[in-house]
């Protein structure tokens, strides 16, 4: 889907929030799976019961994943915008679907030699 005219890149805070939400949801899911496995294999632990133990697993893994995913998302997306990156790829002749630099020069030469209608 092509970018909408006038569309802007998300801000750093929006990227941070998106990474935090993604990491939190992944962490809660992983905590649910591993927490259930730990409870089934080793018991609920020291008189706490099933739900307090499971919630501890889920919250600790959710917070950990959210923290690292939020930082990782900002670091990974910091730099060129998509439009700047695409323009750079085209300038350097490395855009997907374009021939390499040597191939691009050969294509240009063929197009220049071609008869014009």
Key attributes of the depicted protein:
117 residues, mainly alpha, 2 domains, elongated
Describe it.
By secondary structure, the protein is mostly helical. 71% of the residues lie in helices and 0% in strands. It is built from four helices and no strands. The protein starts with 11 loop residues before the first helix and ends with a helix. The mean pLDDT is 81. Pfam families: Romo1 (PF10247). Belongs to the MGR2 family. It is found in: Membrane.
Short overview:
The protein is an all-alpha fold.
Output the radius of gyration. 25 Å
Overall number of domains: 2
Cα-to-Cα separation, first versus last residue = 34 Å
Tally of separate helices: 4
How would you describe the shape? elongated
Give the amount of beta strand, in percent.
Answer: under 5%
Q: What series of H and E elements makes up the topology?
A: HHHH
- Spans with pLDDT under 50 lasting ≥5 residues? none
Helix content: over 70%
Largest sheet: none
Q: Mean pLDDT, nearest integer?
A: 81
Helix/strand class: mainly alpha
Number of DSSP-assigned strands: 0
Family: Belongs to the MGR2 family.
Subcellular location: Membrane
InterPro entries: Romo1/Mgr2 (IPR018450)
Keywords: Membrane, Transmembrane, Transmembrane helix
């Amino acid at each position: 889907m092509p970018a909408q005219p006038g569309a802007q890149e998300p801000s750093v805070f929006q990227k941070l929030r998106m990474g935090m939400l993604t990491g939190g949801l992944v962490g809660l899911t992983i905590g649910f799976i591993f927490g259930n496995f730990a409870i089934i294999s080793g018991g609920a632990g020291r008189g706490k019961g099933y739900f307090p133990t499971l919630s501890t697993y889920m919250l600790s893994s959710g917070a950990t994943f959210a923290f690292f995913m939020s930082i990782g998302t900002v670091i990974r997306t910091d730099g060129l915008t998509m439009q700047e990156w695409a323009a750079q790829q085209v300038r350097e002749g490395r855009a997907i679907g374009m021939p390499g630099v040597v191939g691009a020069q050969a294509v240009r030469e063929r197009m220049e030699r071609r008869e014009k209608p």
